[in-house]
Design goal:
Length: about 300
């Protein structure tokens, strides 16, 4: 049985009428690693196939098929927001995972609608093919995901205060809505997708509000979906992870370096947007920039993004 199977932190919940509820916080990376999904970028022939102009369904309802994908078919372009302009395998930066020779750099220039400079912050997505390869993962299996992320020195960041990078999950739940038909009102169940996760927020010393360059990890989010500021970040490698438990909660973890996450790395647990998670579909990355046609986003590097289940 894998060693990390036992890295489960049990916390006492709220006392209700003499009954104590227990909530399990499962450390991301606990259990069995799913080998049909994930990527270590060790294949020197790894390539991204862009397939023409990116999608921008969120902005103008245009998907522009065929969409982009990776040569190993483990990644695909987001039909909603499109793909980053620069997705390339690179040599693993110093301090990375032992034995790793390859990682993935993600950067973008023309975010948003192709050929149109909105002059505002836009974002592109890189999505891991997960549910198409292993199916939706019910939270009863206690799924989790982990990725190593390299933050470059501050002098290489886009000189803009705000969100620069996201690491998020695609979850599904069921909501009940009241709908009227003629004179009848009934409760209707509908499937709802939502996307909790992390954002990396940068504060630039050049905008007059901050005395020095600094970065923070934001968690999205609380029960209303609003972001919560968490730990201060520094350049170099970080390990980020999220787990989902059968009570529908999402648990957020982060640690400096490339070591396995531990209970000490726990940052927050809750039900983002007030939703009770039912299924994990995948995890994905966002890169953000000022869409002015000139300014490149910050060059982030990821390595060994993986998915696990406890059972």
């Amino acid at each position: 049985m894998p060693r990390r199977m036992f890295q489960v932190l049990i916390c006492v919940g709220i006392f209700f009428g003499g009954v104590v509820e227990l909530t399990a916080q499962v450390v991301p990376g606990t259990g069995r690693k799913l080998t049909r999904v994930g990527d270590d970028f060790e294949d020197v022939d790894w390539k991204w196939i862009p397939n023409g102009f990116k999608s921008s369904r969120e902005q103008d309802e245009q998907v522009r098929r065929p969409t982009g994908y990776s040569s190993n078919r483990h990644w695909f372009e987001s039909p909603k927001r499109g793909m980053p302009d620069h997705i390339v395998r690179v040599e693993t930066p110093a301090g990375g995972l032992p034995g790793s020779t390859g990682a993935l750099k993600i950067q973008t220039l023309n975010s948003g609608i192709p050929g149109f400079d909105s002059l505002q912050m836009e974002q592109d997505d890189l999505i891991m093919a997960c549910s198409s390869r292993v199916g939706l993962l019910p939270v009863s299996r206690v799924p989790s995901c982990v990725s190593r992320v390299y933050l470059p020195p501050y002098e290489r960041w886009e000189d803009r205060s705000g969100s620069h990078f996201g690491y998020r999950i695609d979850l599904k739940t069921t909501i009940r809505e009241k709908k009227k038909k003629f004179f009848l009102t009934r409760n209707v169940k509908t499937e709802e997708n939502y996307w909790p996760g992390f954002f990396v927020e940068f504060h630039s010393a050049h905008d007059g509000r901050f005395p020095k360059d600094e970065a923070y990890l934001l968690i999205r989010g609380n029960s209303a979906g609003h972001e919560m500021r968490s730990i201060r970040l520094s350049p170099g490698w970080w390990t980020l992870g999220m787990s989902m438990t059968p009570d529908g909660r999402v648990h957020f973890y982060a640690g400096k370096g490339i070591g396995d996450l531990t209970p000490a790395n726990h940052l927050h647990s809750g039900m983002p947007y007030g939703y009770e998670a039912e299924y994990f579909a995948t995890h994905f990355f966002n890169v953000c920039n000022q869409n002015d046609g000139v300014t490149w986003s910050t060059p982030f590097i990821i390595d060994d993004p993986s998915v696990y289940t406890l059972n």
